[in-house]
Design brief:
By secondary structure, this protein is an alpha/beta fold. It has a single domain, classed as P-loop containing nucleotide triphosphate hydrolases (Rossmann fold, 3-Layer(aba) Sandwich). It is 32% helix and 24% strand. It is built from 7 helices and 10 strands. The strands form 2 sheets. The protein has a 6-stranded mixed β-sheet, sandwiched between helices. Strands 2-1-4-5 form a 4-stranded antiparallel β-sheet, covered by helices on one side. Helix 3 packs parallel to helix 5. The longest helix has 16 residues. The protein starts with 10 loop residues before the first strand and ends in an 11-residue tail after the last strand.
Length: 238
């Protein structure tokens, strides 16, 4: 039985490597310790392993070697039920959105709250408030398949944060919106972080990194380095 530990790092990787099939390792000997309530950007060229690292943090796949701990638990040997419980505490924004295309924007965002058993009255209040913040309030009843790419991106972000997760992982969450909306969404992530959520955002947007000064997890040549907040991120690492 796994029990959530509320002390120590919220995510910890020790000597982690990951490969697909018999191919070379995408990431090698990764050591990373993220404290509760921290905020990090995740950068690196395309193919550097950002999505692979996020997928391990989300428990979508396990390391090929090394140790991965979430909420103080070594999950290398966790069963399916334990992994499911951990995932409920993690909000994820995928690059391909992974929304339910046949239902409304409102219902997509409401889904995590309904799974948790919240009353419909409280769900309606929370969802409408958040959709207004991300500027989807006029399209709440629209079937998701009819929305633009930028609108879907904002719905996906709203769904990821509606349940105030302990961890938020976002893969290029501002890639389909203009700079004004990108800044507004970043402020939403910042506010969520102030409430205690640990945030990791993968991005190529150097303007956001310069505006919101948080440490960067930089992936290069299958390895990882941490660049302190405010220090220059070289173009080759974006």
């Amino acid at each position: 039985m796994f029990e959530t530990q509320e002390t120590g790092p919220i995510i910890e990787l020790e000597k982690v490597g990951i490969r697909y099939g018999r191919g070379p390792e995408v990431l090698s000997n990764i050591d990373l310790s993220l404290q509760r309530g921290s905020f990090h950007f995740l950068t690196g060229k395309s193919g550097a392993g950002k999505t692979s690292l996020l997928s391990m943090m989300y428990l979508w796949q396990k390391p090929s070697r090394g140790r991965l701990s979430i909420f103080g638990n070594n999950v290398n040997f966790a069963n399916r039920n334990s992994l499911s419980l951990f995932r409920r505490r993690i909000g994820v924004v995928f690059q391909d959105f992974r929304l339910l295309e046949h239902v409304s924007a409102f219902d997509n965002v409401a889904l995590p709250l309904r799974v948790s058993g919240m009353s419909e009255k409280e769900i309606r209040k929370r969802v409408n408030e958040l959709l207004k913040w991300v500027e989807i309030d006029r399209s709440t009843s629209a079937i998701t398949s009819t929305l633009s790419g930028g609108e879907k991106q904002r719905v996906a972000i709203a769904r990821a944060v509606i349940n105030r997760p302990d961890i938020l992982l976002a893969d290029e969450p501002t890639g389909n919106v203009d700079n004004g909306i990108a800044t507004k969404l970043m402020k939403l992530f910042v506010e969520l972080n102030k409430l205690g959520t640990t945030v990791v955002i993968a991005t190529h947007n150097e303007n956001l990194i310069n505006e919101f000064k948080y440490p960067c997890i930089c992936l290069k040549n299958h390895n990882l380095t941490i660049v302190p907040a405010g220090e220059k991120i070289h173009d080759m690492e974006i």
